[in-house]
Specification:
Elements (H helix, E strand, L loop, with lengths): L4 H10 L11 H26 L10 H10 L5 H11 L5 H6 L2 H7 L6 H16 L5 H5 L3 H9 L6 H11 L9 H9 L8 H11 L4 H17 L23
Helix pairs in contact: 1-2, 2-13, 3-4, 3-7, 3-10, 6-7, 11-13
Organism: Aedoeadaptatus ivorii
GO molecular function: 4 iron, 4 sulfur cluster binding; class I DNA-(apurinic or apyrimidinic site) endonuclease activity; metal ion binding
GO biological process, one term: base-excision repair
Amino acid sequence: MAIAYGMLSCHIQDDKVYDPQPHKDEKYRHRNRRSTIEPLLQIYDALFSHYGDLHWWPGENPYEIMVGAILTQNTAWTNVEKAIARLAEDLTPQRIAAMPVETLEERIRPAGFFRQKARYLKAMTAWYARYNYDAEAVRRVPLDALRPEILSVKGIGNETADSILLYAFDLPSFVVNAYTMRHFARYPLKTGRTYAAVQAYCEARLPESAEIYNHFHALIVINGKEHCKKRPICAGCPLEGGCEKRIEE
């Protein structure tokens, strides 16, 4: 079901509002609130209205999503699908943990960088074993403690960690990637230029909702692939009307 822009605005007004300069005058605060929140929500609303629910992330269970988050590093998703298909019935944490690393390398070869990714999968699986491969046990850990813990696992950086938190465990950790940076720089939004700055900007202005973060990241990626490319195709882009960097045909 589509989440309306007005509904998001209500969530933010009732729940969490980013107000960098609080003022006693409520009318001023209301104007400040709209000016700081609306551009991000306008982007979300335009993308969601155009594409709808993209049903991300593809995966049968949390562990398969975690594996996909590792395998998709520096490669196309089509290559990830080939590697996952080769794992077949062995795509469980118990079987990956027991599998010789050389065998795992060969099975995931289509995903590229297969030697290092095999070691990353082993490290991630060893981390998951600390929770007895129980997703609910992971979800019980506070997010501000869990994210650094996952980032300490070999081969897991910010984007991979947040993808795992958001898509495997349904936790509200906003995912930033090259498409996010490109969209916000072109629109433009004053998000900052680092991963942490962009993530903080978005999380301060959006409801703390895994569902909304899920949709927003998926929408940015699909629009980045279809329109907001390195050489943009602005005609037909759902953000064309508000984007200051649009190219006139």
